[in-house]
Structures are given as C-alpha cells and as structure tokens.
Design brief:
Blueprint: E1 13-17, H1 21-36, E2 45-48, H2 56-70, E3 73-75, H3 84-89, H4 105-121, E4 126-128, H5 140-144, H6 154-172, H7 175-178, E5 184-186, H8 194-203, H9 221-236
Parallel strand pairs: 1-2, 1-4, 2-3, 4-5
Helix pairs in contact: 1-2, 1-8, 4-6, 8-9
C-alpha cells in the first residue's frame, strides 16, 4: 500500500557503530556526504551497537568520541533481545575483536530490526550498518591481491546483505507509525577486506583515537591484538605510518 502524500522520508542517516574502525569510517563518510551537499539536510546520528564482553565500555566511549569528532547526535543504545546469556554471546558486527564469528545470527536479526525501527521513529530513513564479512588474517600479503578471497566469508556476506534489505523493507511497512515512506539499511563494507577499510580510512584521514583499541593499556590483550590487526591492514595498504609499529604492544595516545 503506498504511503500517504504527507509521509516522506527525511534521508537522515543513522550510523551503527561498535567503536571500531569500520564504524568510524562510516561516520566520516556520512559527514562528508553532508559537506559535499553544501551542508544542507539534517545532520547524521550515531548509535552504539556492539553487544557485550570485556571491551563494551571502551567501545561505548569510542562511539562518543566518534560523535564528537563529526558532531553527530548520539542515539541511546538500541533495543536488546533475549536472556542475559544470549546477549553475552551476541556480537552484532559479525565478528568479535579476535575475529571469531558471531554466535547467534537470529538474535542479531531481531536486534537489527529493533534498532532500525528505533531509527525510523527518530526520523532516520537511511541506516548504515558497517558489518564486515571478513576474518582478520595475520599475513599482510593476503591483503594485497584484490582477487584473493581468503578471509572473506561469502555466506556471511550474502546473509548480511539479504538481512539488511529485508529488515529495511519490513520496517518500511510501519510508515503509519514512524512516518518514513522508505527505510534503507546499507552495508557498504560487507565485502571489503581490512586493507580496503584501512585504505579508505587513511584517504579520509579519520581520527584513529576514536577507535576503542587506541590507547588501551599495554597488558590489555584485546586492545593489543586489535591494534596489531589494523597495523597489518594499514601496512598492506601502504599507510603503516598511521599506526606506529611500536604502538602494537604499547598503549598509544591520540
């Protein structure tokens, strides 16, 4: 059934971020789109969406830094579903900091529907989900060849793409409640390797201090591991200076 004439979509963007580099890059691109359009239109918004675990507070703080860096309004954490044990296993960006696959795709789907519905009620019709269907690899050489599919999870890429399309369409059906004639969920990085993410991030000169792993304590293994992951990616992309090699095992400060 077509939307009523007085119901339109704002085109306002909401970025879902778990405080890592893909979310930061998505925010930078959303801000650049506003600047390129001459500053017209509503400012984008950002929401923390990143599950639980030992890095959750660092991730939330990073999303606050990302909001400050690009002058975005922060939307309160999205709805959560399931029991405490379910949520503890839920990692909505597809992989956790160690590169392990998410444990519960169905719970992810329910949560995605919830945050997209919330976004529509907040006046956003364009939701950016920076999910990656890529397992981080330790060999930088693997990142160099565009035709090398190692590390890419083709099933996850297909599921995430379909999920985004279907959730957007499903939320659009409730136009009579949220007023957005259409709602679209974008997955711009779903088939990109870390090297490609790093290359785009370097080109846009994103503020890396707004990533959760920047400046974490030297003995905090998840932070050290994640810095090493992205150092390898920047090195493969020819931007190793973005993360000093000595910062892999040391806490780095912006």
């Amino acid at each position: 059934m077509p939307a009523s004439p007085d119901r339109t979509s704002t085109g306002r963007t909401l970025v879902l971020s778990d405080g890592n580099l893909p979310g930061l890059l998505a925010a930078a691109i959303a801000r650049e789109a506003i600047v390129s359009a001459g500053g017209g239109g509503p400012d984008p918004m950002i929401m923390f969406w990143g599950g639980n675990g030992p890095t959750i507070e660092l991730r939330k703080k990073a999303v606050q830094l990302q909001a400050e860096a690009f002058q975005f309004e922060i939307v309160k954490d999205g709805p959560r579903f399931g029991s405490d044990s379910d949520r503890a296993a839920f990692k909505p960006t597809g992989f956790d900091a160690t590169g392990q696959p998410a444990q519960d795709s169905q719970l992810e789907t329910m949560s995605l529907f919830g945050v997209v519905s919330q976004a529509a009620r907040k006046g956003c019709s364009n939701i950016v989900w920076p999910v990656q269907g890529f397992h981080p690899l330790e060999d930088p050489a693997v990142h160099d060849r565009a035709d090398d599919l190692r590390g890419l999870d083709l099933d996850l890429i297909a599921r995430s793409t379909d999920k985004a399309i279907l959730v957007g369409r499903l939320v659009s059906l409730d136009v009579h409640e949220h007023g957005q004639a259409w709602v679209k969920v974008e997955t711009p990085f779903v088939d990109l390797k870390d090297r490609q993410i790093a290359d785009l991030a370097a080109e846009m000169e994103v503020p890396l201090h707004a990533c959760w792993w920047w400046g974490t304590p030297v003995r905090f293994e998840p932070g050290v591991r994640e810095r090493a992951r992205w150092y390898r990616a920047f090195e493969a992309a020819g931007w190793a200076s973005m993360i000093p090699s000595g910062a892999i095992s040391l806490g780095v400060r912006g």
